[in-house]
Amino acid sequence: MSVLIAPSILSADFAALGDAIAAVQRGGADLIHVDVMDGHFVPNITIGPPVVKSIKRVATVPLDVHLMIQEPDRFIDAFAEAGAAMIAVHVEVLPHLHRTVHAIKALGVKAGVVLNPSTPVAALQEVAAEVDYVMVMSVNPGFGGQTFIPRSESKVREVRALLDAAGNRGPVEIDGGVDKTNVARIVTAGARIIVAGNAIFGAADAEQATRELKAAALGALASAAAR
After folding, report:
1. Where does residue 181 rank: exposed (0-12), middle (13-18), buried (19+ CB within 10 A)?
2. pLDDT of amino acid 141
3. How many angstroms separate the CA atoms of 131 and 105, rounded?
4. How far apart are CA 39 and CA 182, in angstroms?
5. CA 120 to CA 127: how far, in whole Å?
6. Does residue 145 carry a pLDDT above 70?
7. Annotation marks residue 13 as catalytic
8. CA 117/CA 140 separation, integer angstroms
9. 63 - beta bridge partners?
């Protein structure tokens, strides 16, 4: 598959969220990444289904919803109803991961599983054949603007190998500290969905920043294919 760019609205100006989303869509965004935090699983608090529903009204690309919450099973229906096309849940809070993945899929939504930096790839084994995508956290979750953890590149490779061994061609997504300086290495490692927050919304021109990040990612993909 190609590389998809998913600007993270966590780093956007919430007073002008509609304009921010429009800008990144003009720049070629493929998804809008929505971080949902509950103040328990992570220390920050962000938004809930009503805001996601409002975002859906202005977004022309699918919503990639990342649930950084303690009890995701209680809320997946609400986020699906609000307009999420993709819902990712953390393996760290789910003793019945297989059940949750299938509950998300039953709603007609793509089911993703997220690994924190300290969580081993082996934690995916139970659902490797069934999950639609896997998100690798390349920062510790909770806040935007953090520095990329370098070992995340090798973790992307490990996840890709595990999915391939299970016969699953679903993409690997990476979230945290991604920018123009490291996106080529990340794509070469196997990531195909690139979440970027501060690198896009912290730039003077979010539209242009999206365009440049996408060009860098696609360039890396073309180079890898030519080898």
Report:
1. exposed
2. 75
3. 9
4. 30
5. 14
6. no
7. no
8. 6
9. 32, 84
Residue 131, phi then psi, degrees to nearest 5: -70, 150
Q: Work out the pLDDT band at 13, boundaries 50, 70, 90.
A: very high
Catalytic residue among 35, 64, 132, 179: 35
Closest CA relative to residue 83, chosen from 38, 120, 119, 47? 47
Q: Which of 30, 38, 64, 175 is catalytic?
A: 175
87 strand-pairing partners: 65, 111
Structure tokens at 199: 């690198």
Give CA–CA dist 211/158, Å, rounded.
29
Alpha-carbon torsion (14, 16, 18, 24), positive or negative: negative
pTM of the model: 0.96
Active-site residue 175, yes or no? yes
Q: What is the 3-state secondary structure (H, E, C) of the chain?
A: CCCEEEEEHHHCCHHHHHHHHHHHHHCCCCCEEEEEEECCCCCCECCCHHHHHHHHHHCCCCEEEEEECCCHHHCHHHHHHHCEEEEEEEHHHCCCHHHHHHHHHHCCCEEEEEECCCCCHHHHHHHCCCCCEEEEECCCCCCCCCCCCCCHHHHHHHHHHHHHHCCCCCCEEEECCCCCCCHHHHHHHCEEEEEECHHHHCCCCHHHHHHHHHHHHHHHHHHHHHC
Question: What are the pLDDT digits (tens) for 170-222?
Answer: 999 999 999 999 999 999 999 999 999 999 999 999 999 999 999 999 999 99
11 vs 2: CA distance, rounded Å: 25
Cα separation of the two ends of the chain: 17
